[in-house]
Amino acid sequence: MQGIKIKQYINTGDNNEVIVTNTDITLNTYTDEEYKKILNDLISEGTVQPVTMEDNEWVIVDEFLEQSRLNFPFILQPNINELIKKYVLIKLGVQYRSSSTIVHSRKEIVDFLKETNFLNLNRVVNLRDEIAHWSDTRKRSIHILQEFIRFSNLDSKREYYTVLNGVSIPDSNTRTLPSYQSIITFDYIIQDFIVNSDDKIKMRYYPILIWWELTKIIPLRPIELYLLEREWVYEQNGKYYIHLVRRKKKHGDLRYTRIAPLNEIEISYELYNLLSYYIKEANKFNNSKYILNYEFMNSFRDFNTNNKRNQDFCGGGSFRKLLLKFYKEVVTEQYGYTVIPKQDEDIELKFNEIEVLNVGDTRHIAICSMMLQGFNELTIAQLAGHARVSEQVTYSNHLESYTKAYTYVMAKSFKNRINLVNKDVNSIRHSREMIMRKALLGNDYDGLRKTDYGRCKSKNFPFECDVEDCLFCDHFIRGSELTQKVLDEKLKIVDKEIATKLSYIKSVVQTERKYGDNRELKTNTNSLHSLLVRRAIIEAYKMGSEESQ
């Protein structure tokens, strides 16, 4: 039974050839002195605050300078505490896992040890039945328990590992994104807030405006946003740029040198203006190098953030608190929306509901948007700071739900535009509606050219025919022949074509096809957009039919 798997990448020479080696680490791989050295190295680099192996509370510090406390609660079982500490050291100092991963792993391990009385053999008999009642989320963490058991020297490790190894693990859900409807609503709020809000409250939430306007276009990681420097926004030869430094590092993992990221990115004048205004005001306040300087941000707040850290930039915790305050004070109190958690399924939100967006969501939104616009996959990787095109796979898994939500919002817009013109003439009973209809058509319905499922109001037929199916033409007027059954059949055809296009786009990412000008990819994404418009039109007609019933 193996321990913690460690993969190392070794550069063999000038030709940049990489050799991959795998090592399995168990409790006895290192001596006690070597574990102490790992701890001291972590303390020296600032990842762990000064402690000893005997201390039962450690504080680890992430790249945001945010602290997480690790408690080792089994004081009466010092050998168990020592085992967990050594596991944490391997994860932090050898495998280089993030602090959030360590905190989560420690909790799962501690909970499991409590439940099983430290892997007591008498408890293993009923373990499978107990696991059956675990949530899917907890079942997905079984690999953590397996890894810890393999690492340990506990007598019952084989029996427990065998039971855990026989559990069926639920598929991991792709990261939940808010619906496109919520994205559009939030964007509307931001744009209106920029134009119409009071200057004082606008300055308080200016970091939120920067986050949204910048990262919905350029897929930055949160830390890359927090550590943007003021001098990195500049004008050159009449064009506007932002300089980026990628922050995802893998401690010498040579794979992360394969694709060079784009660090100088051209931005619009509007975005430059938004950033430079805040930078100018920040420069008046202090000489910090960071755009999102903590002290400057805090000067506009009327609430206590309880910040105890000595840091120059805004950390993740501070930014999330500001975003939550924005939802309460602006989205809810000023614009009247009810903020709800992200939904696991696509549902129709009420007119005054909006799903919450988290700081990291805009990175996914930006990448999905670029995929659907037909950006070259290498360009997306460079803009996103991905080392490999295959890193886009996770994001491409959002495309199906993203496109459905996108067409739903578009369909609502289409429905409002075509609702009056496309009503059956027999359903119009009010003279005011009839007058408006005649003004729009310039003719009586019965005098128009007959087409499949309705009439054509084009005055220059057939020279205005741009599509092969009249249903998708701006000159089409719905007739009684356009039934729900017909619409459902057309929707099936369009959905099948959309699935084909999405499958191709995802395959480009997953198979890492040759970089360069992928014209076939561009053709497929352009075609996909046309299909999304068609799907939205069909949905709009379906909405109209349902309302008239």
From TrEMBL:
Q: Does the keyword Lipid metabolism apply?
A: no
GO biological process assignments: DNA integration; DNA recombination
Q: Which domain of life is it from?
A: Bacteria
* Keywords in alphabetical order: DNA recombination
GO MF terms on file?
Answer: DNA binding
InterPro entries documented for this protein:
DNA_brk_join_enz, Integrase-like_cat_sf
Its name, as the record gives it, is: Integrase
Q: Which organism is it from?
A: Turicibacter bilis
